[in-house]
Request: fold
Amino acid sequence: MNDAAGTPIEIAAAIVYHISNPAAAVLDVENVHDFMQVQSEVRPARAGHHHPYAAEDTESLTRHSEHILEQFRDMVQERVERAGISIDEARFTHLAYAPEIAQSHVAQTAGRSGNRRPLRAGARRHRRSGRHRPPGSSGAIS
Reply:
């Protein structure tokens, strides 16, 4: 699925619920467990479509999760209420960039960190040689 910015992401949720009206649950849905399984798969995608995965200047899935989780819980509650089900808790259990996006981030990071390795290796050689001490210091403890 894509977030609000069009970035492919993966999102999954756990929903804790109880049957508050058994008669409605029996009459409105064939199998409550299967019905809730579908809701836990479909509703997170809908929540993800309304918010970007990450953003600095606006509400995002990674930065304002409490508010978004509250909206998500309310969205699920609205959908299942007619079936006599009450939502006790809803939370995201998995939130990540889709594999193709994650791989491109890893490649970019590896490219950046690859440029740093020679500097670190040079710094270690410099440190081992003792050249990091200020001129005139002996390195002895008095």
Summary: The radius of gyration is 26 Å. The first strand starts at residue 9 and ends at 19. The chain has four helices and two strands.
